[in-house]
Design a protein that fits this description.
Length: 293
């Protein structure tokens, strides 16, 4: 007699038992087939040029120009003055990223609690509120709008009414990442176990005390983790935003490519690599402190 939930094995033609294909396994097979088909289209397609000798010749020539092998002048990465000049631009890029993640963090910190459904409907032990429900939908709509618009589009819009510089890029990056960090943090609150907050409420705690002692201590480590992760993303995205906001290494990269100063491009890429490594190390250290706290 079958028990509820028992899976009946499929019997093959030779009389043996065949394990049924799960959804995950079928998805893996489908992904493999799609990947093979995609690479087949790229490699064998007539308009891709992936396997043409000219493509690889152009790539090798570009790499040699980045290294300064075909340049009659001294490469930029061997000139101390160029290191100092690009270092100043790297500092502006770092300032842009810190300002952007600060804008995103402050905005998300002020709004991710109203953006959690479990606070407005009383699932965590607080009183249900119509005002809280209205705030929930407004905040969630704001999260969707800000993260739905890419950073580059935000920068193109903001630069119309702000002078090009660090601030437009920081605002563009901050607005987009505000929606990302806010949504993730609100979902952390929605997935919190209701036991601690309901116990505080049953003990006579006010809604503010319930938030202060029952929800924030559980949500803040996740919030800080998401914020530092997004900082790592922001420092990589500054190069794209710099193309239109005219600040930092992104602007210099666009100009160097336009004037075919390839060794300057190589030096800018080195500075970007150093910035990314530094931010990754700092954010990992901050996440370690958040876990200890």
């Amino acid at each position: 007699m079958m028990r509820p939930g028992e899976v009946v094995p499929v019997q093959s033609a030779c009389g043996g038992r065949r394990r049924p294909i799960s959804v995950a396994r079928a998805s893996l097979y489908g992904f493999g087939l799609l990947m093979l088909a995609s690479w087949g289209y790229i490699v064998l397609g007539g308009d891709s040029g992936f396997i043409e000798g000219r493509t690889w010749s152009n790539a090798s020539r570009f790499l040699s120009q980045l290294a300064g092998l075909d340049s009659a002048s001294r490469p930029a990465y061997l000139q101390p003055g160029q290191w100092a000049e690009k270092g100043r631009l790297a500092y502006h890029t770092l300032v842009m990223s810190v300002l952007a993640i600060g804008i995103a963090g402050i905005g998300a910190l002020l709004t991710f609690l109203p953006g959690a459904r479990t606070l407005s409907n009383g699932a965590l032990g607080g009183p249900p509120s119509r005002l809280g429900t209205v705030l929930y939908y407004l905040v969630r709509l704001t999260f969707a709008l800000t993260r739905g618009v890419p950073e580059l589009v935000w920068a193109m819009v903001i630069v119309f009414f702000l002078s090009p510089g660090v601030l437009p890029g920081a605002l563009a990056l901050g607005l987009h990442n505000y929606g990302v960090v806010g949504k993730l943090s609100a979902e952390v609150v929605e997935n919190l176990p209701p036991g601690p907050t309901r116990a505080l409420r049953a003990a006579g705690a006010s809604p503010f005390q319930m938030l202060l002692y029952g929800i924030l201590p559980q949500a803040m480590p996740h919030f800080l983790t998401y914020l530092t992760y997004r900082w790592e993303v922001v420092i990589r995205t500054t190069v794209v935003v710099g193309f239109v906001s005219a600040a930092g290494l992104g602007r210099e990269l666009r100009l160097s490519l336009s004037f075919f100063h390839y060794t300057d491009v190589a030096l800018i890429l080195i500075w970007y690599l150093l910035l990314v490594l530094a931010v990754d190390l700092i954010s990992a250290w901050l996440r370690h402190l958040a876990r200890l706290g």
